[in-house]
Amino acid sequence: MAHDADLTVRLDRSSRIGLPLQIVAGIRAEIVTGRLRPGDSLPSSRVLAAQLGVARGTVQTAYEHLIAEGQLVTAARSGTRVNPALQTARTGRASAARRSGSRAVTGRAMPSHHSTDIAAEVRIDARGVSVRPDPRDEPDFRAAWRRGLDTRDVSDDGCGTQTVRQAIAGHLRLVRGMQVEPADIVLTAGARDGLRTVLNVLAPAALGVESPGFPGLRRALANTATVDVPVDTDGIDPAATPVQLRALLLTPNHLHPHGDSMSATRRVQLLRWAESCGGHLIEDDYDTEARYAGSLPPTLADLDSSGRVLHLGSFATLLGTRLGIGYIIATGPLSAGIAAHRRMLGPAASPLIQAALADYLDSGGLRRRMLRMRKRLAAAAEAVDAAGLPVTQVRGRVILERPAGDARRLRRALAERGILVDDLAGKWTGGQQTGIEIALSSLTSPELTAVLAALRAELSQG
Fold first, then answer.
1. Distance separating alpha carbons of residues 236 and 242, to the nearest angstrom
2. What is the pTM of this model?
3. Residues with Cβ within 8 Å of residue 434, at least 6 apart in sequence
4. Quick check: helix, strand or coil at residue 349?
5. Per-residue pLDDT for 430 more than 80?
6. How far apart are CA 224 and CA 192, in angstroms?
7. Could you tell me whether strands 72-75 and 79-82 are parallel, antiparallel, or unpaired per DSSP bridges?
């Protein structure tokens, strides 16, 4: 008969961090260090409460939190256990290194003075290049792909099959409150491909871009002249827009540097600007799904009555970049030209991929994944707050501002521990921020615990 694991959770009743969160952090650490392994049984809430000297409800709250994260599972007969499907962050090379008294990370041995550091045992990419958990591990996603194999809808004229465009329109109606006709949707091979398509048709003499702003889509602007337009707390001010500009690239639902949304007044002003001068607003709606608190503001496209907004979207935030599907919503004078250009290029994705995506959207699989992601990001945000580090949180990202030299040293030190983080200076254009950035969406809970522990250790060394 299996015995319950002995936990070494320690509580600090003088801490401002609540007791349930302290228990959560303690059990997470047990999982990360390997003291708790997948399938291990935990004490009942009654037993652990007695051991820790707390109310049973306190332990139940902590267990429920960890179950929601996927760290623990519970069943009527087997009690509460570490999730058997949980992948530990340890590697075989790290285990071998422990036996030899050193740490192996990315092919190099770590000195023995790091022997107590959790993160030295793992290889963690916290730059947001992937999304956790991998959608391919989810039953909804796999089922959609199996059903996609049976598709008979291959009538893609280059703008996407009718089935997938209807599914995207339905998804946007439910998730973003947008009233979109399937005929106004043009399928693309991602948001950058969508921007290139728009610019090929729009052919602006110059494109106004937010300064400071997110450079993600700007990598598609190699052949387009750009003009930096200042951004204040409400977003781009049309009164400050150079008179020669007739096109602006905007991220109204995620402004630099703190993830705020453009004010309603400024949205109306920009729409009036576009209508009065015959200009266009290219709306990049990136990262909206990562908003885990508060309501979503409307898109510019949904407020537009004159067809001056060209809306770019994709599924990369929820599914990663491997799917390679995005879309343009165009209702105005450029819509016919955009559709014609896309037809000339040919289909953006195979009928099988389009059928699988349509099934995933229609079955509600993507919405369920979005809700799980928001819960996971909210739990991760709580864990970051509980860590008490001098960081700022922005829409599922953790930002630590540091002078450029300190930031480089910190990135190198974390890399030596097996943790890759983003360079904050490279995340925005026109801004003065330097430091590091961590994407919570790319981390499992044990990985986040390891990253926070490593960051605390490095900061304590000055």
1. 11
2. 0.71
3. 401, 402, 403, 404, 407, 424, 425
4. coil
5. no
6. 13
7. antiparallel
In the chain, where the domains are located: 19-82, 124-132+368-460, 135-366
Closest CA to 118 of 103, 134, 138, 99: 103
Helix residue spans in 260-396 (DSSP H): 264-277, 300-303, 316-319, 335-345, 351-362, 365-387
| Per-residue model confidence (pLDDT) at position 270 | 95
CATH of domain 124-132+368-460: 3.90.1150.10
The vertex-443 CA angle with 439 and 445, nearest 5°, equals: 130
Distance CA 313, CA 282 (A): 11
In CATH, the number for domain 135-366 is: 3.40.640.10
CB-CB contact of 392 with 440 (8 Å): no
Q: What is the mean pLDDT of residues 64-87?
A: 76
Sequence-ordered list of residues with C-beta below 8 angstroms from that of 354, at least 6 positions apart, any chain: 151, 153, 156, 160, 161, 163, 164, 187, 325
* CA-wise closest residue to 27 among 59, 53, 74: 59
d(C-alpha 367, C-alpha 291), whole Å: 14
If residue 97 lies in a helix (H) or strand (E), which one and from where to where?
Answer: helix 92-100
Cβ atoms of 179 and 172 within 8 Å: the answer is: no
Q: How much of the chain is in helix, strand and coil states, percent to nearest 5?
A: 45, 15, 40
Region class of 241: left (phi > 0), else alpha (psi between -120 and 50), else beta: beta
Query: Looking at per-residue confidence, does 284 or 128 come out higher?
Result: 284
Average predicted confidence (pLDDT) for the chain = 83
- 338: nearest Cα among 326, 356, 322: 326
| Percent of the chain's residues with pLDDT above 70 | 85
Which residues does 431 contact at the CB level (< 8 Å), separation at least 6? 212, 256, 257
Which token pair is 357?
A: 């995506």
Topology of the domain comprising 19-82:
Arc Repressor Mutant, subunit A (1.10.10)
pLDDT in tens, 273-322: 999 999 999 999 887 777 766 667 789 998 998 999 999 999 988 888 87
- Report how far residue 401's alpha carbon sits from residue 308's, in angstroms, rounded to the nearest whole number: 38
Report whether 330 contacts 195 (CB < 8 A).
no
Determine the Cα–Cα distance for residues 306 and 279; give it in Å rounded to an integer: 11
CB 172: neighbour CB atoms within 10 A? 23
Tell me if domain 19-82 and domain 135-366 are identical in fold: no
Query: How far apart are alpha carbons 344 and 446 in whole angstroms?
Result: 48
Give the residue with greater pLDDT, 160 vs 57. Answer: 160
